[in-house]
Amino acid sequence: MSSSSSSSTASKKYKINVPCTSANIGPGFDVCGIALSKSLSLIVTIPLQQPAETTLPKIIYTGLDSDNVPLSPYRNLLTRVALYVLRSHDITSFPSGVLIEAHNEIPFGRGLGSSGAAVIAGVLLGDLLGNLNLPKSRLLDFALMVERHPDNVTAALEGGFVGSYLRELSPEDMSAASIPLAEVLPEYPPDAGPDWGKDPPLPPKGIGHFVKFGWAKEIKAIAVSPRFELATAKARGVLPESYSRKDMIFNLQRLAVLTTALARSPPDPDLIYDAMGDRVHQPYRMTLIPGLPKILTTLTPTSHPGLLGICLSGAGPTILALATHNFESIAAEIENIFKSEGVEVDWSLLEVDERGSTVEETQ
Ligand SMILES: Nc1ncnc2c1ncn2[C@@H]1O[C@H](COP(=O)(O)OP(=O)(O)O)[C@@H](O)[C@H]1O
Ligand SMILES: N[C@@H](CCOP(=O)(O)O)C(=O)O
């Protein structure tokens, strides 16, 4: 326990750590996600005794994109999600005197699950501040009321390589789960008191279901991120409403093979490369990401030994290449193709994070 000597300022500190994620992995649109080794972390200091004066949480950000984050707890995504969890448990306001120090390594709007990580961090923050001890399945329900595709949030919460689906809801549950996001996460006015607004819509129970797949230890992920943001909402907006039977079968066949192929040691590059093909989201997103068609066709396990497969990370624009070696030359080739389209990039070599999200008491 971390406590200062004076009893009036005695406090406990906790660290919440949430990994970034790469969703889809080719054919698994809105199904698969991998937790990777960059994270959003929060150090949360909570006074042991509530101060006499009521104060909102103080938020401090460091790290990537920290200049672009609202610091009002009524505007910030983390704290709005936490307040949703608290209000859903009849706790109408934040405890007073809380300090939240966020450190972010996940670039915003690049397809590495920054919003999914923020939503999971917010749910864990609400659970901590309300002393709720919610089980993982309930934490996921709250996250899914905010981020409505399960791939990023499930992988961020659970860690590793995960497949997930949403339970078919009863008509009554369906009406709760399809409430507009603005009602789940209202923009609280600056002077919002404990009685502000109506009761939040509670999530139906057991919305998300998942299974953790195996992952061959020698497989690493090269993430090449263009220096521009692509909002997930915009990249979902270009997708069609329906697909041909041929394209659905194309993806289902590959997905079934891929989930086992990535667990096998040593990995089979030709099998994985083919199994990472996709006809559901990548073809439609090519107009938003210059260089994507060339990247997906130029690099192969034959041209670049060590490469296993290549895909758009989440909704993009980051490219995810799975590989066992020759990481620099694979990244350099992707970087050159982007450069030829006038796009600058940053790249990093990431490991799979098997731990998922953690909450620990700290000093
Ligand atoms: N740590 C964070 N704190 C607050 N807001 C965040 C955080 N991370 C992401 N966001 C919000 O989520 C947006 C990005 O979400 P999205 O378009 O889904 O892209 P991504 O692929 O990175 O998840 C950011 O512009 C920001 O508004
Ligand atoms: N399945 C979603 C995943 C979005 O991931 P993000 O990291 O880009 O937010 C999609 O492809 O739209």
TrEMBL record:
Catalytic class of the enzyme: transferase
Catalytic reaction equation(s): L-homoserine + ATP = O-phospho-L-homoserine + ADP + H(+)
SUPFAM superfamilies: GHMP Kinase, C-terminal domain, Ribosomal protein S5 domain 2-like
Domain GHMP kinase C-terminal as annotated: residue spans: 267-332
Keyword annotations from UniProtKB, A to Z: Amino-acid biosynthesis, ATP-binding, Kinase, Nucleotide-binding, Threonine biosynthesis, Transferase
Pathway membership: Amino-acid biosynthesis; L-threonine biosynthesis; L-threonine from L-aspartate: step 4/5
GO molecular function terms noted in the UniProt entry: kinase activity
Residue ranges of every copy of the GHMP kinase N-terminal domain listed in the record: 76-160
Keyword Protein transport: no
Annotated EC: 2.7.1.39
PANTHER family: HOMOSERINE KINASE, HOMOSERINE/4-DIPHOSPHOCYTIDYL-2-C-METHYL-D-ERYTHRITOL KINASE
Entries under HAMAP family matching the protein: Homoser_kinase
Family, per entry: Belongs to the GHMP kinase family. Homoserine kinase subfamily.
NCBIfam families for this protein: thrB
Protein name as it appears in the record: Homoserine kinase
Taxonomic lineage: Eukaryota, Fungi, Dikarya, Basidiomycota, Agaricomycotina
